[in-house]
Design goal:
The chain is α/β, with parallel strands linked by helices. The strands form 3 sheets. The chain has a 7-stranded mixed beta sheet, sandwiched between helices. The protein has a two-stranded antiparallel sheet with strand order 2-3. Strand 8 and strand 9 form a beta hairpin.
């Protein structure tokens, strides 16, 4: 199954486009995501933009060059992959069981898109079963509660993650 790691943003709320290179528990956030997806046997592509050109060829992953606009880049990236395709932001702290359980649950839904809601917030993790070129697609949410999920949008999110995962 294909997976796309979305990594083309400016990181303006965090203050750096390199936020996926921040370390939690001694490991870069993006490296942890890649390791999880590889261990789950996904074919991984990395969607970047001019903002994150420093990731071109990262870990020898297939690179998809976007424009830096999330919606446009997502649509373009999905068109280059086989369905279903898993979408994961490059700046989330996740655990392997979260991805495994989400993919399993999403695959049993009758919908075009499944989105993962964690702690009542969009996680940025989704699965597409249809290409977005057809306009507004139906979606279903899968909701979970976890204290070990973090979306690193701002410095405070990073501080909370570091505090949670201190050794």
């Amino acid at each position: 199954m294909d997976a796309i790691i979305m990594a083309g943003g400016k990181g303006s709320r965090m203050g750096t486009a390199e936020k996926m290179l921040l370390k939690v528990n001694g490991e870069k956030v993006i490296d942890a995501i890649i390791k999880i997806l590889q261990n789950l046997n996904f074919n991984i592509s990395l969607c970047i933009s001019e903002n994150t050109r420093f990731l071109d060829g990262y870990h020898s992953l297939r690179t998809i060059m976007g424009q830096g606009d999330y919606a446009l880049d997502l649509n373009y990236a999905i068109k280059t992959c086989s369905l279903p395709v898993l979408i994961v932001p490059s700046d989330v702290i996740i655990k392997p069981d979260m991805i495994h359980d989400f993919v399993t649950s999403a695959s049993s839904l009758d919908t075009a898109i499944a989105t993962l809601i964690v702690n009542n917030k969009l996680s940025g993790i989704s699965m597409f079963f249809k290409k977005p070129e057809t306009g507004n697609l139906p979606y279903k949410n899968i909701e979970i509660l976890r204290d070990d999920f973090f979306n690193l949008n701002c410095p405070d999110d990073y501080k909370k993650a570091l505090h949670r995962f201190e050794k």
